[in-house]
Predict the 3D structure of the following.
Amino acid sequence: MTQHSEVQTQSDEPTTTSERYIASLWSEIIGLDHVVLSNKFLDVGGNSLRLNIILNRIEKERGVALEAESFFDPDRSSVFELARELDQALAAKPD
């Protein structure tokens, strides 16, 4: 069993609105068939061009800006962590 298949458990599926949103962006922009919470941006083919597209979409569609550095930080670049960051930015957003 490969490491990649080991992390793809049912509990690793995106469930919250933000998790599903980040996963859908990665699927569309990076071209992934399946995205799980433990996927990290650079590990799944993310790069600076794709990041720019993703950040612009988040700002346009959700009205918040995420830190680009988060996508390149191995401790903060998973779908799970980025969805948490998105949730925090949305919670801090003025009404």
Remarks:
- The longest helix spans residues 48-62.
- The CA atoms of residues 21 and 85 lie 12 Å apart.
- The chain has five helices and no strands.
